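FW: tagging you since you asked about this chain on Friday. Here's the raw sequence from the shared folder, copied in full. Didn't touch anything.
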Amino acid sequence: MSGQYNELLKKVSIFASLTQDNLEKVEKLLSLKKYSKDSVIVSQEDKGDSLFIIATGKVKVVLYGESGRKIILSIFGTQNFFGEMSLLDGAPRSANVIAIEDSKLLILHRKQFLNLLIDYPDINMAVMHELCTRLRRADDIIGNLALLDVYGRVARILMDMAKKNGIETDEGILIQERPTQQNMANMVGTSRETFSRALNEFQRRGFCELQGKSILIKQTHSLESEYNK
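HL: got it, structure written out here
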């Protein structure tokens, strides 16, 4: 790829410790594939033979229940990666991954990935760290669904987004380019209508304010109290 994605790889957590020369070696192993909006990138139970790195676009990691209920586990954007679990344990994919928008993904096949783990021990530690982070997040999602009511789950997802991607302003914490209300509803395991009612109630109480595709969190302590009851 002649260095086209070298700067991107520097920002991918599992490759952050590599030297410039080694990053160039990794880049030569990658192939590029484009996915249109709403296309399925990975299906649950498929054989896992590739690691995916998001060059542009966004994807969502989704589980479907027997009743058709949908839960979004994560939304990943540029610099994020997915697919590492199946490469490590040889088991089928654990979830579905769907493009939220037109996306370009860099693909690293299993044999090449395992060779990198042998050649660069720092990647091993970075992968384990990421796996632990994602496991903790999965535990949080399970706990939220089991223990919090809808208002508590909506408050939690807003605060999580504020802490992860929020920008401090004089008025509060601004979450830019928020997911759609349908995707946010799927993240907390409820319907779009119920999510919208909770969000409207939070606006009425002055906790937050919708600003186009952004959300301004105006009273963080009040929102936190909603899921700490």
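FW: The first helix runs from residue 6 to 10.
HL: agreed, and The mean pLDDT is 90.
FW: great, closing this out.
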